[in-house]
Design a protein that fits this description.
3 strands, alpha+beta, elongated, 42% helix
Length: 90
């Protein structure tokens, strides 16, 4: 066997061992109900909470995220007040 084939076989064996271990230590249905995932982005200004099955429980967006997006889009004046969107030029 070549080194590539040996390396591939070893990688597959390692992956199968990992899968067997995961199956053996699988949480119960009751434990899965309690599992929640939480993540943040933009230095904590956006937060998401998910429950089993990938269902999103909540999304929290800090007001400054929206204000910054409006500023970048040119939809607020220098004082932070909303302005009319630019008209499309045809």
């Amino acid at each position: 066997m070549t080194a590539d084939a040996d390396q591939f076989r070893q990688s597959m064996d390692d992956a199968l061992d990992t899968l067997r271990e995961l199956r053996a230590n699988r949480p119960s249905a009751e434990e899965l109900v309690r599992i929640r995932g939480e993540a943040t982005a933009a230095d904590g200004l956006i937060a998401v909470v998910a429950s089993p099955g990938g269902r999103v429980e909540s999304i929290t967006v800090a007001p400054q995220v929206l204000r910054n997006a409006l500023k970048r889009a040119g939809l607020v004046d220098k004082k932070g007040r909303p302005t009319a969107p630019p008209k499309d030029e045809a």
